């Protein structure tokens, strides 16, 4: 009995000792269950620098204190800024204001402190009003919409300083504010000259008056968060050969009939790898339907199949009062040997356009780069077609690694939606320096999704942005090649020649007035539709070779 009791107590103690291990999982299990941290936005108001000693904290030289850069310009009475040496980690910065229609006539500068590291030099935030929804679109006129600068990728940081100097504001050191990113000569007013850094040095007798800054100026600090791991089958759209995928309503744009009937053809058109098959030479073994087939292939006229862009419907029975869809070998009435010339020309144009298609490149989906679908607006807005591909640079800087590209995209996405108030990510596609292509605005990569990328020309176009700034730095050869692959495929779906030209109607901008019918390259730079430096001098130079390569990929 004592032996039995001792053994029972031993079993109970062993179970009790094992119980905590089941309740509190070890570190390995905890890591497996970790939920990815969502992104976040910190918003800091930009206040007058002459108040509350902000001028001293932002511009005081020495040490690692905020603004500890002796080269920082002295503040002017109209300057606004903020000094935040200790904030939650962030990786992207931008400045926004209340009204999207208001212009920021001033120079915006920021410097950041790397997490656990040193302060960066002062850097400028560039204008962004040209990369936006169209002026009369609900997306830009909605209550959530705001004006803003271009965002800047700074990497993981935990301290920031920012200042905004209005145009014409003269500081104690004689420097004057200029438009951010503007041409130095243009931004400097009468009686002023440009300095080497793009600022403007005021003439002693200029007497310029500081421009009014828009209301609600604030600094946005974006943390991209961590993306949850997507299902393997949803992370990337794999590359496909140059065969369009059929849609529910029929052939995809550019579909070509197969030279041979598909296996199991039953007299009806069926979808093979290259599109709809031809009519089967053998009719289906229907129970009672009479068969109407030519006695010899040579007797059947050859022109009707070329005349029709789509396979004809099944022929009606002889009792039907409707005429046959194309001349039959048994027809008793005379038929013309060729279709009318105008029909021939139209069908030849369609056939030629359908001939040219390009393979679909590999595309990282929104799930693949970790887009938070809960922050965007539901639903989508579409155009009727895609006539032009506008090429952009994101002006977010070039200091990112390819492994960081998804984080950069998540940051820009959050800035577009949460800070600027847009319905979704602005660009339709984005390409990183390693040539990887990412799905942008949601709605379907094969569809004519209306984006927010080229003010005045977002309808019937698509926006392709290369991550980086290419005003003085050349884009990588991989990125340029990816532009050609992407545009060849997407424009081929809508039967566009990459080396051709077309017309778009302007929705209004600083280069073309609203309603103007503008001739554009099918592959165009942003500056072709708007007076802007985008996509950067060095990227814009590459567009000629992009058009040539894209046309070759289409088989032209």
Automatic annotation (TrEMBL):
Organism superkingdom: Bacteria
Positions of the N-acetylmuramoyl-L-alanine amidase domain: 374-536
Similarity comment: Belongs to the N-acetylmuramoyl-L-alanine amidase 2 family.
Keyword Cytoplasm among UniProt keywords: no
Signal peptide interval: 1-30
Name this polypeptide is given: N-acetylmuramoyl-L-alanine amidase
Region entry Disordered, spans: 55-82, 170-200, 243-343
Organism: Streptomyces melanosporofaciens
Keyword Signal: yes
Keyword terms: Signal
